[in-house]
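Field reference: "sequence" (input) and "structure" (output). Example, 2,3-cyclic-nucleotide 2-phosphodiesterase:
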Amino acid sequence: MVTSDIHAHIFPTRYRSRDDQAGLGLAKAATLIKRIQHKAKEDTIVLTIDNGDLIQGSSLAAYLKENYTEGIMPLFEVTNLLQYDAGVIGNHEFDYGRKFLNKALCACHYPILCANILDEKNHSYGKPYIVIEKKGMKIAVLGLTTQNIPYWEPEENIKGLHFVSALEMAQKYVPFLKHIADIVVIAYHGGYGEKRIKGSIQEQKSRTKENEGAALSKIKGVDALITGHQHRRIATSINGIPTIQPGHNGECVGEIDLETTHKIVKSGYSKLLAVAQEVPDTEVSRFLGAFEKKTQKWLDKPIAKLGDGFQMTDPNMARRKGHPFINLLNQVQLQATGAEISAVSLFNNEVTGFSTEVTIRDIKINYPFENKLVVLQVTGAQLRAALEQNATYWKLYNDHAIVNQCTFGPAIPYYNYDIYAGVDYTLDISYPVGRRVRSLSYHGRPVENKQVFRLAVSQYRALGGGSFKMYSPKQIIAEHSTTIPKLVIEYLRANEDLTPDKLKHNNYRILPE
């Protein structure tokens, strides 16, 4: 059984309101997992694995980080109640730095695996694998993590670590593990580069090696493949290997069943087990219940009052046409940094903007990531390249610009589409990729390739995250110590009764309209 990308969602809520209920969360998953563990037949071996990204992403995690002396440590400790056999390091486990992660790993009563992240002594950061012996069978579990973490994490969070290709490390370990174990399972906090996940597939060509799942499935000796990171729901066989990816936020538990004869795998299949109808586990709920109540009270704390016009009903239309809420986010970044240009994203299609009374809950709904704000020094050529990358978000359909699912597949990374302020630009999606920026000007004059600007962006984007390879840490000329959500709070408190007309308006066009 597999959980993956829980993202600190313990209770069945998305925290959109105090009484919000959702069919997800580790407490519900725990009920299902414990039932299967306890009801397993005598000749059945049950392993339970968490596949990473356990601790970051919910309002509960944000509350613990800001208000509890031990920070988010309870989110690791609660997993000990589920009798996991192993866990895998996810990319978001590094969000709080190595010092905290080292402490957190020690709090887990089960081994944490990761073969392809190496420390200063070239040793695996965490155990590379574990061999579990039950009922006369030896099952090897190899832990791997997407190697793209340096694109997303600041240097201080991963200092001294070296990130190797998951595929290369699997090719090294699998033959050895097949020699010492009867069954080899890869638990990979990474996914697939392609949209269609079925049958015999090849890895989609990419400039990065963020998701190497298809290549891993073709390694001789692998009996089962666990994936994650992309938040997709996948249960199928690929290149003859059963594979699973159980979504995110604890909405599903993944199950891979292997049938063996004389210790040889004869068949295997995978399935997703939805947790929506489960009752939250009492033990898990009791362990974190007091923190959950405090989180809900904290979320309802008022921040400021605004004028009408900042609420949003259609995020994708806002990306195309602009919106006062987007203007507000860009204004926060421009004022905090003094940069000439700013770029922000709408992280998902659940953002609602702000009503006239803003609470901490509204901040968390609309800006769920604790990103730091940085200033890049960029040239006009780099700015144009970034806008061209932005333009790949769209495709032409019946003479209209629509989201390009041919590029992104079902898991569209909305957070990788930026809206810029400080420059005027036009993207025409009827033109070929790479030639869609039809105009780009600053203060009414065309931007020259060698012209230099200060650009305010999130640290994630500054590190090149989202395939924005024209940006790099070497271009960072200033860093803000305060996270962007806190900067938004400070701005709102300093600008009570703000109205849309007090902000700079839409300065771009997406064609055809």
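The chain has two domains: 2-296, 301-511.
The first helix runs from residue 26 to 39.
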